[in-house]
Amino acid sequence: MDYLSAPLPRRRSVAVNVGGVTVGGDAPVVVQSMTNTDTADIDATVAQCAALHKAGSEVVRITVDRDESAAAVPRIRERLLRLGHDVPLVGDFHYIGHKLLADHPACAEALAKYRINPGNVGFRDKRDRQFIDIVEMAIRHDKPVRIGVNWGSLDQELLTRLMDENQKKGFPMSADEVTREAIVQSALLSAELAEQTGLARDKILLSAKVSRVQDLIAVYTDLADRCDHALHLGLTEAGMGSKGIVASSAALAILLQQGIGDTIRISLTPEPGGDRTREVQVAQELLQTMGFRQFLPVVAACPGCGRTTSTVFQELARKIEDDLRRNMPVWREKYPGVEELKVAVMGCIVNGPGESKHADIGISLPGTGESPAAPVFVDGRKAATLRGDDIAAQFEAMVTDYIEARFGRGGKDAAA
């Protein structure tokens, strides 16, 4: 692989076990997400956790903001296990986390990890005491902690002190630079306090989220240079639709390419009535596109042009992609290695045959003025020419047969 396209070596971080999922160390970058249901609504939260896990979220975070939410956590965990979703649940605590964990020990036990925001865990003389209370609870229940700094709720006392110190310098930094330093210091000082309290290094993860791309890159680059804790990446308040996807991908891709980041979340604002699993799909596609992980078979499809007036290839590409994504939870168990499959759906003869030959199985559909015939290539060789009104259905059947032949037990036995 050319050095310009090869990911740089991963930053070496301390591995953390989060409910059976390893984050950091030599483990692949972990995909996680967060529910937007009221956690006290057990049915809705179980349904969304299950949907996120089925979509590929390896860790799911839920809000624990009041007694009713904390009381619901053990029941949510139990219901998910009964449904076959052994997904680690992370409790997101703000303001009264120390009290909720103390008053609801079953919640403390059911969660796989606690997330603390040092900017609002407590104020003034209560801040360290309440932070320590949560850390001691984590030690008691043998749980890891993510110390999650967010510039929207940054420790104002720390920021004010650093601003005052900066003004006394002969060549002061800009306000943005001081704010970034406050974010990094908040994470590092909190991690130091957690360790002094007795929490092991392999129980600590850090995050430092901001909403501007360049600030995020600067903060995490600095944080990675100053510690070896596992790092959770995410652009907070990324936005809705393509804006959120582009902003998150731009920021996280640069950091991941530098080897920074052990787990990621794409924090998308869902469209009204939108599917929460979209953020999982984007995270997977980012990691897969960059070559860090393989989650789904790759479907190559041409962008279309004046030669491809038919929409058949677009519809077929979408249908194949949707079928693969829908079937992957079952196929991943039934057909080990199927995520490595490469399918090509091309719209005319210009690049169609060549691209199809590079795929495991590919089809070149007829474009404008071409004869109504579609050559299909399997493992680089022409295997068939499809004709008729049901070309798409014929090709779908060939893809299914190819998966069974190559990745099914019969295909593996034959290969052995």
UniProtKB/TrEMBL annotation:
Annotated cofactor note: Binds 1 [4Fe-4S] cluster.
EC number: 1.17.7.3
GO biological process: isopentenyl diphosphate biosynthetic process, methylerythritol 4-phosphate pathway; terpenoid biosynthetic process
GO MF terms, alphabetically ordered: 4 iron, 4 sulfur cluster binding; 4-hydroxy-3-methylbut-2-en-1-yl diphosphate synthase activity (ferredoxin); 4-hydroxy-3-methylbut-2-enyl-diphosphate synthase activity (flavodoxin); iron ion binding
Gene3D superfamilies referenced in this protein's UniProt entry, alphabetically: Dihydropteroate synthase-like, Sulfite Reductase Hemoprotein, domain 1
InterPro entries: Dihydropteroate_synth-like_sf, IspG_bac, IspG_bac-typ, IspG_C, IspG_TIM, NO2/SO3_Rdtase_4Fe4S_sf
Domain IspG C-terminal: 299-400
Domain of life: Bacteria
Keywords: 4Fe-4S, Iron, Iron-sulfur, Isoprene biosynthesis, Metal-binding, Oxidoreductase
Reactions catalysed: (2E)-4-hydroxy-3-methylbut-2-enyl diphosphate + oxidized [flavodoxin] + H2O + 2 H(+) = 2-C-methyl-D-erythritol 2,4-cyclic diphosphate + reduced [flavodoxin]
Pfam family, one: GcpE
Residue span(s) of domain IspG TIM-barrel: 15-284
Entry binding sites for [4Fe-4S] cluster: C302, C305, C348, E355
Membrane-crossing residue ranges in chain numbering: none
Entry cofactors: [4Fe-4S] cluster
Pathway(s) of this molecule: Isoprenoid biosynthesis; isopentenyl diphosphate biosynthesis via DXP pathway; isopentenyl diphosphate from 1-deoxy-D-xylulose 5-phosphate: step 5/6
Family: Belongs to the IspG family.
Main function: Converts 2C-methyl-D-erythritol 2,4-cyclodiphosphate (ME-2,4cPP) into 1-hydroxy-2-methyl-2-(E)-butenyl 4-diphosphate.
Record protein name field: 4-hydroxy-3-methylbut-2-en-1-yl diphosphate synthase (flavodoxin)
Species: Roseitalea porphyridii
